[in-house]
Amino acid sequence: MKNLIISAHKDTYYTATALLLSTFKDADLNFTEADTIHLDLPAYVDSAYDNIYIVGVRLKNDFSGQILAALKAVSAKKKVKWYVMSSRFDVEDADRKLIEPYLILVPEGKTITKSICEKEKCPEEAFKRLDDLYSLCEAREEGKSYKEKLDNTKNYHDYLRHEIKMYWKWEPGNIEIIRDIIKKLAFNSVPEDELNSARPEIDESRVLSGKSPNIQDLRKKIGKITKYKKVPVLILGESGSGKEIVANMLHEASKRKGELIPVNCAGLSPALTESLLFGYVKGAFTDAKEDKKGIFAEANGGTVFLDEIASMDITVQAKLLRF
After folding, report:
1. If we measure between CA atoms, which residue out of 185, 164, 141, 161 comes closest to residue 15?
2. How far apart are CA 158 and CA 166, in angstroms?
3. Per-residue DSSP letter, 176
């Protein structure tokens, strides 16, 4: 039996898809949108798949006639199971009654993962882990059960949010990235370093916009650099060209545990710059009443961005080079 899982693009549906994948092991994964499902389905009529599972894709009234025709054509040759939240079945009564037999409608208050577990023979361990994760992605209230699920799945939740945000920020359209995320969730195989270093909060506004060859090449270069654990990077560009955005992307993609600390080197005196970067000990000068860590020490495990480094006093540049 050859199985295909088609998922909507949403973190909850990625976890539901992971549950199906953990059950069928070797299913193929594809993705679609509500606006294109009626166009995508006919392509599978003569495919080699025996079973097609659709997860979370909303049915829109705009295309109800085309969706029904596509479902009839595919179901004539394949077994189709379409798991969808009842609130996402947005079709008028006439077509609704005709389409409903092809669906597994999930009522409000119930998760798609729970419905999948009831209909398919899902591994208990995978269901518990992924249903908690699904619920956490959907959670809007903070109660005891929510906090328990947060404790049980925090690393996976942070990982999922981080990877999805990085996907949309860096390589939307590269479906292999999403497939990789789902496979790791399905088979509980996310590497420890990825779990521990993924940061759930990413500033999505700090992104290189545009699709020109130069911008795409810059994104690729940033991606290559972040594979190296410890390397200084020189970012060149005129004022306002986005050097800090590039620094921010470098930091986020590196999965460093620490923070990004920007320092504007322009206008700082040599003494202040040196104290800021390297710190000082109590009594080093008149106002040094206690030991003070420098930025390099505070940013250990993270990233320091030295903006306008050419404006730094040459004597401090020499010490920085030595450092």
Report:
1. 185
2. 12
3. H
Amino acid residing at 288? A
Separation of alpha carbons 188 and 194, rounded Å? 12
Q: Beta strand 279-280 with 292-293: parallel, antiparallel or unpaired? A: antiparallel
Q: How far is CA 181 from CA 13, 16, 127, 134, 177, in A?
A: 12, 12, 17, 14, 6
171-to-5, 10, 166 alpha-carbon distances in Å: 22, 16, 8
Phi, psi at 229, each rounded to 5°: -70, -45
Please state the pTM of the whole predicted model: 0.74
- Pick from 208, 217, 223: which is nearest to 254 by CA? 223
Q: Read off the tokens for 56.
A: 């979370």
pLDDT band at 43; cut points 50, 70, 90: very high
At residue 15, does pLDDT exceed 90? yes
Task: Say how far apart CA 232 and CA 254 lie, in whole Å.
Answer: 13
Q: Which amino acid is at 200?
A: P
Structure tokens at 105: 């409608």
CA distance 180 to 190: 10
Question: 193-197, long-range: CB within 8 Å, 24+ apart, which pairs?
Answer: 193/255, 194/159, 194/255, 195/155, 195/156, 195/158, 195/159, 196/155, 196/257, 197/255, 197/256, 197/257
- Report residue 178 CA to chain centroid gap: 8
For the cut 70, the answer to whether the pLDDT of residue 188 exceeds it is: yes
How many H-runs (helices) and E-runs (strands) does the chain carry? Answer: 14, 11
- Residue 104's pLDDT is 96
- Please give the full DSSP string across 238-294, using - where no structure is assigned: -TTS-HHHHHHHHHHHHT-SS-EEEEE-TT--HHHHHHHHHEE-TTSSTT--S-EE-
**One-letter amino acid for residue 5 of the chain:** I
Cα separation, 136 vs 142, in Å, equals 10
CA 258 to chain centroid, in Å, comes to: 19
Could you say which DSSP state residue 48 is in?
S
